[in-house]
Amino acid sequence: MLSRVARFNPGLVLCLVILGPLTYLIHQFGHWATGEALGVDMWLSVAKAGSVDSEFGSRLNRILVVMAGPVLTVLIASIAWWVAKRTGSMIAYGVLCFQFMMRLVAGSIALISGNLNDGATWASSSASDPIRCRLPLPPSFSR
Rounded CA gap, 119 and 82, in Å? Predict the structure, then answer.
């Protein structure tokens, strides 16, 4: 049983330190590329992508741009799952876990802060005015 215990693998850690942020950039690139393809003037940074003038042309364009990042995240996770299942690759498993954590953290931040992000804004009431929701928090969590 001890022979099956995982050992520290610096190569795996290095791969994940590079691949984790790379998949995050791909997520942001999805927002940017979709907006540009729809004719929306977009900007892209390491941490975020958005419309230059906050205009998307239509509600559908806004929904497509907002959802493009999470769709790429799910696609990356699906590919990583498939590779991990077929090959047993720990790198693919690590990428899959990173995608799950990225969505979990983004969703948690949106729920706690009320500042909707990515998939949480797709149901906005208009193209420029997303629905804001706040969870009732105990006094210890008040801002």
Answer: 24
Residue 29 structure tokens: 């690139």
Q: What is the DSSP-derived secondary structure letter of residue 127?
A: S
Residues 6 or more apart in contact with residue 110 via CB below 8 angstroms: 116, 117, 118, 120
pLDDT above 50 for 40 = yes
Bridge partners of 44, per DSSP, are: 49
Helix axes 10-37, 59-87, angle to 10 degrees: 150
Structural Rg of the chain based on CA atoms: 18
C-alpha to C-alpha distance for 26 and 22, rounded to whole angstroms: 6
CB count in 10 Å sphere of residue 46: 8
Asked if pLDDT for residue 116 goes beyond 80, the answer is no
Q: Residue 38's pLDDT is what?
A: 94
Tokens encoding 142: 């008040």
Phi, then psi, of 42 in degrees rounded to 5: -115, 155
- What pLDDT is stored for residue 33 in this prediction? 95
Q: In terms of pLDDT, which residue wins out, 7 or 104?
A: 104
